[in-house]
Specification:
Helix content: 25-40%
Number of strands: 12
Strand order of the largest sheet: 5-2-3-6-7
Length: 460
């Protein structure tokens, strides 16, 4: 395998980073980027972090670029996308059958998008399906449907408003007989520290929401044309009728909107951290932090972020290490699918998943070892982290409890993989740490790895 010499590699890396900034239209020295950087430093200091620590020294710039790129829709215009993408097509006359008799419904399905939730500033995933009925002897380039949807996704959003804005923009830009938009949205449900300590078996996951919007011939949700549209989505498991029933139930789309004690709300709102979040909102584009939907966003974001402030969970780990039956050190013990939640220190975005632990114990094994190991995972998880360090720290702690022979596998989904211009939906990462016998015995590692369950990621 060929390699780059060190000097050439550095040159390639530098050029690559600079090129990416230009592609995003983001200048590192522009006032908006600098304002977000300053605000992120305030947030890091509020978490008790040393902003000059090597791992997070460049975090403010990384976060600023990610947020600016993720909200680039404020700086884009639909007209610029659509105006040169309308093409003449004979047979598409108004008033002669469906779409003029010669043409028909046009649908683009399964567009993967992400947007930032206006309630908590966390990215959420979107599977977008767009359809329109051409008219006026013209059609639009199919890729433009995706680009228009992306313009509005790259803003602070709510699912229903996102669907309505995409629908309205396409109708005004294309002037068709009608436009239909269906969105499948997926929002991470991140637990707070207190809830996982009270119930270690409680698995938080995802909140799903299905929304639709229609114009023209699609404006009446009971119109026959909706049957054609939905028939082409049925095998995707989409049922608008079910969605409408669920919407009638008092269901909160953003988990952070759950009731927070007024005392806590006040404390967070008055803090410098909340002021810093308001500054970020002002720097993203055309947003007003005083808009009704954004009034509580700084408070909600700070309360969520404070889950990762260094805590005294360590004291809880010192209780009950040595108890239970004696162990001769020849039995392979394992605990699989221990849930974890953490916060990437590079981008201030969450990552979460499961931890699998295998070990040989040279000490008595605690009869309640699952709870003990879960507390170890939570202790190292609820702080600013990187997955590699998290894996190593869990292995070292388990080794100190049960002896030196430990293998830890961490499987995770990173929110940063669907944002920052990467948008690799459905991807996951796995890391391994080995100590003692596991470090030298490949057969032992294979035995443990083959015992792991098949992983499943959240999908739309």
């Amino acid at each position: 395998m060929g390699t780059l010499d060190e000097g050439h590699f550095k040159e390639e890396l530098e050029n690559g980073v600079k090129l990416r900034c230009v592609e995003l239209g983001i200048e590192e020295e522009e006032p908006e980027t600098l304002a977000v950087e300053a605000a992120v430093r305030v947030l890091l200091q509020g978490l008790g972090e040393d902003i000059n620590r090597e791992g997070i020294r460049k975090t403010p710039l990384r976060v600023a670029k990610a947020l600016r790129e993720g909200t680039r829709g404020y700086r884009q215009k639909v007209k610029d996308i659509v105006q040169d993408a309308l093409f003449p097509e004979a047979g598409l006359e108004d008033g002669i059958g469906l779409a003029g008799g010669a043409g028909g419904l046009v649908i683009v399905r399964d567009l993967d998008l992400f947007s930032y939730c206006e309630s908590c500033l966390l990215p959420f995933q979107v599977k977008c399906h767009v359809g329109y009925i051409p008219s006026g002897q013209r059609v639009v380039g199919l890729s433009k449907l995706s680009r228009v949807a992306d313009v509005f996704a790259k803003r602070l959003q709510d699912p229903q408003r996102l669907a309505d804005e995409v629908c309205t923009a396409l109708h005004q830009g294309i002037n068709p007989s009608g436009v239909a938009v269906v969105l499948q949205c997926l929002h991470i449900h991140f637990p707070n520290l207190g809830s996982v300590l009270l119930d270690s078996d409680h698995h938080h996951g995802w909140v799903k929401k299905l929304v639709s919007s229609g114009s023209g011939d699609f404006e009446n949700e009971k119109a026959d044309i909706w049957d054609d549209f939905l028939s082409l989505l049925k095998f995707r498991g989409i049922s608008l009728e079910k969605a409408r029933i669920m919407d009638k139930i008092d269901q909160c789309w953003c988990p952070s909107n759950s009731k927070i004690p007024s005392k806590m709300m006040g404390a967070a709102h008055e803090s410098g951290m909340a002021v810093a979040v308001s500054s970020i909102l002002r720097s993203l584009g055309e947003e007003d932090p005083l808009r009704n939907e954004l009034m509580g966003t700084p408070t909600r974001f700070v309360n969520w972020l404070m889950n990762f402030k260094n805590s005294n969970l360590e004291m809880k780990l010192k209780n009950g290490y040595i108890s239970g039956a004696k162990d001769d050190g020849t039995t392979l013990h394992s605990e699989l699918n221990l849930s974890f939640w953490s916060q990437c220190e590079h981008h201030l975005l969450p990552f979460h998943g499961v931890v699998h632990i295998g070990f040989f114990s040279h000490r008595p094994v605690d009869t309640n070892r699952k709870a003990l190991l879960q507390s170890v995972v939570h202790y190292h998880g609820f702080k600013l982290q990187v997955q590699e360090r998290l894996t190593r720290q869990i292995a070292e702690t388990v080794s100190s409890v049960f002896g030196g022979d430990v293998m830890v596998v961490v499987e995770a989904n990173h929110v940063c993989m669907i944002s920052r211009g990467i948008e690799k939906f459905g991807s996951s990462t796995a890391t391994i740490a080995v100590l003692g016998q596991f470090a030298v015995d490949s057969a032992l590692r294979t035995k443990f790895l083959r015992s792991l369950p098949i992983s499943c990621s959240a999908t739309l």
